[in-house]
Specification:
The complex is a heterodimer of chains A (113) and B (111).
Chain A lengths: L4 E3 L2 E4 L5 E6 L6 E8 L3 E9 L2 E5 L6 E5 L5 E5 L8 E8 L8 E2 L3 E5 L1
Parallel strand pairs in A: 2-11
Antiparallel strand pairs in A: 1-3, 3-8, 4-5, 4-9, 5-6, 7-8, 9-10, 9-11
Chain B lengths: L3 E4 L2 E5 L4 E7 L7 E6 L6 E6 L5 E4 L2 E6 L4 E6 L8 E7 L7 E2 L3 E6 L1
Parallel strand pairs in B: 2-11
Antiparallel strand pairs in B: 1-3, 3-8, 4-5, 4-9, 6-7, 7-8, 9-10, 9-11
The chains are: A mainly beta (113), B mainly beta (111).
């Protein structure tokens, strides 16, 4: 089975721009969660989508949004980028049953200049 | 605030030694405690997980010890190998998939 794939792997943007990141979960998985990883704050939960609905949300501003498509692929969008948004953005897929193993992708590294 | 506190920040162990990483939490609602291993350039991968109804869980060289009354849990890596050199994260959650991660421990195993 193919693992979780994330595109693009690297991205450079400037302040004020917006960005869209993509995540393709493992085949058959219906839940996709997004996390932000930074050296200062560590790994922080952004949101989880299950069957095209946001099931859970972390403590991030409204500039961070996401969606999930009928094939379970998910996108996250960050609008009005700030320097502090520079991070590794990870997505994790699971079957959707709560607390089942989450499989992480390699992440998208975003640099905001 | 940090819901899960992890220590130490970094750890150097000789090959064959025991690596011990500790985590503490405050939220008594947490009911699932996984440990993740992350290599450079990769996403975290689940290593082992425990629920609060057991005090210890062992999988190969990896053991989780759980102390519910102290609200602490720890990862023990027996017979540590250079291939174990990675960053380890403890995490916790309750009734959901949103994981609260510790700050990570960078483990280096010296040959």
């Amino acid at each position: 089975k193919a693992g979780v794939t994330q595109t693009p792997r690297y991205l450079i943007k400037t302040r004020g721009q917006q960005v869209t990141l993509s995540c393709s979960p493992i085949s058959g998985h219906r839940s996709v969660s997004w996390y932000q990883q930074t050296p200062g704050q560590g790994l922080q939960f952004l949101f989880e989508y299950f069957s095209e609905t946001q099931r859970n949300k972390g403590n991030f501003p409204g500039r961070f949004s996401g969606r999930q498509f009928s094939n379970s692929r998910s996108e996250m969008n960050v609008s009005t980028l700030e320097l502090g948004d520079s991070a590794l953005y990870l997505c994790a897929s699971s079957t959707g049953t709560v607390q089942e193993t989450q499989y992480f992708g390699p992440g998208t590294r975003l640099l905001v200049l | 605030q940090q819901q899960v506190k992890q220590s130490p920040q970094s750890l150097i162990v000789q090959k064959g030694g025991i690596s011990i990483i500790n985590c503490a939490y405050e939220n008594t609602a947490f009911d699932y405690f996984p440990w993740y291993q992350q290599f450079p350039g990769k996403g975290p991968a689940l290593l082992i997980a425990i629920r609060p109804d057991v005090s210890e869980k062992k999988e190969g060289r990896f053991t989780i010890s759980f102390n519910k009354s102290a609200k602490q849990f720890s990862l023990h890596i027996m017979d540590s190998q250079p291939g174990d050199s990675a960053t380890y994260f403890c995490a916790a959650t309750w009734g959901a998939n949103n994981l609260f991660f510790g700050t990570g421990t960078r483990l280096t195993v010296i040959p």
